[in-house]
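Worked example 2:
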Amino acid sequence: MAETYTSDLFQDAADNLERYLEELCEFLRIPGISACPDSGQAMAESCRWFLEKLERMGFSGQLCQTEGWPVVLARYEYGPSAPTLVIYGHYDVQSPEPLEKWITPPFEPTVRDGALYARGVNDDKGQVYTYLAALESYRRCRGDIPLNITFVVEGEEEVGSKGLLKLLRERPEWFRGDMFLVSDSSMFSKELPAVTCGFRGIMAMQIQLQTMKQDLHSGLFGGIVRNAPEVLVQLLAKCKDEEGRVLIPGFYDQVRPLSQRERDTLARLPQDEEKLAERIGAPRLYGETGYTAAERKCARPTLDINGIWGGYLGEGSKTVIPCVASAKLSARLVPDQRPEEIYAKFEAFIRSQLPPDVQVTMEYQFGAMPVLIDDSDPNVQLAAHAIEMGFGREPVLIRSGGTVHIISEIKERLGIPSILILGWGRPENGSHAPNEHFYVEDFEKAVKSLCALFAQLAEPRPNEEGSAL
């Protein structure tokens, strides 16, 4: 029955696959890097591309200006009695460096070995584009879709979503709906699709130490003054033990323990830790004692140094004692940790350990709350059924170790009843890394899954027990 019900949609998605990929490549060629101040023209082109595509599909929309990059807000109105879907994505991408690691240029999309390679193809241009393709196939096959749909596509996800978050707090009525959908995560593995039922939160910060007014000659002054990078690494080394447990007082105070049910669910997921280590190029997996890799990477908090610098970093040698050293850090958070509280604990710990003659500057950069989704929500089950139709395999319900800032705000501030987090990329697709890619096979199955989901939402089908899906 499922095959008959979706056969026209699936055939249309397959027939138009090449055209969809060509159109996606147009989007991917635009180098909109939100963290780069010189990306203004590309960012403007990116958001206009998405808005104009939606307008051609019958949406009415606008570019909402923020203090940063614009937000695309577009609506398709069917009627007041129809349910409202809010579909979220982002058009900004991460910087492609190091460029020498790319096999083909990051903004020249290339298909090889069954995958499309380009910066942003997996995170998130390719994933959000699947919604456009699925809606186009649905409307071509069946006409107007009996749903109200709002697209919210921002340009600052990779730098903290400040503009969208401010807009959400000032104009919440623009974002209200019955269901919130986002595809900015991943499947469980290349063989196993997933519905994500939780994200970790995040706290991001920067620290700078200064030990004296200027760099000094290491021969003339070595041994009588403090070396700023040495002080910094000594301080940061005190934050974690050798097994990865965070040593900052109070860090784990608000962590909600995993229930036995949650641990059992994670334990049933098919994951070979040795193969995982091999796939990501690590000699072995590492982390907090007492937890499996599946638990550590999605349901336990972490603290990581994201970047560290100080002194001379150019070619050759320059024998100086640096006066300044800096680092960027982030903590991934789990329920019920709050980013501001974790930052305050980190700041207090660093100040308590700091030598009295060293100056420190710390900056809280951004944060987001962790999110858990009720996996008994009927719409979660509906999405799982649609994915099974599209991929030919029942998905697993998982948590993601990543963070999508807007989801916590949507959940806490708007109270949208159903949040569906549907990741189409594979974990190894290289988001934020050189040679980012998205498998064409997964792209096609994602479009088919969304076609099935829209069809079920438009015309709910009875399941085997006779109740509505």
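The chain has two domains: 2-199+370-458, 201-255+300-367. Residues 2-199+370-458 form a domain with the Aminopeptidase fold (CATH 3.40.630.10).
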